[in-house]
Design a protein that fits this description.
Radius of gyration: 27 Å
Largest sheet: 7 strands, antiparallel
Oligomer: single chain
Strand content: over 45%
Order of helices and strands: EEEEEEEEEEE
Strand order of the largest sheet: 1-2-3-4-7-8-11
Shape: flat
Distance between the termini: 66 Å
Number of helices: 0
Number of strands: 11
Amino acid sequence: SAEPTLKLKPWKNHLAISVTPRFSHFISHGNSYSHTFDIPTLRVNIGGYYKKWFASIMAGNTPHSNYFYGEQSSKSTMMSVVAIGCRQKNWSALAGVMNPFGIKMKTKNENFAALNPVVTDAWNDGMARKITVRFTWNLDFGKQFKGENRRMENRDENSGIMSGGKE
């Protein structure tokens, strides 16, 4: 898989736009089969930031829903999320809506087996307008070191060290 991310910040630290194309190439070899399969996906994220607040709009294909394993492939339609949140030093909270525009999630599974080729399409109306909430905490139990601006003194003062200066 290759997944580069192009991130633009047209308005300093207040607006960020990222575009992530992903290309996955699958090769599957078995005793009686050999398949190659390509799945291109795209994810777009727009984030706005103001002081401790942020808002995000994301649309894209999720990589875990688009795969090829053995002789079976799975591809899904795009998912979208609209969210707003708050960031502090040691915690953050986010609330949002998954698929706020009522788009049906569609999944296509395809089995390429010679004896039992099967194609199934599934639609999920239950994934539209679902509320999502996320909390994060920074649990930093490590030792804290404070750096000081000190001049480095590199002197050799042992009795066996010769001095290179003129006297």
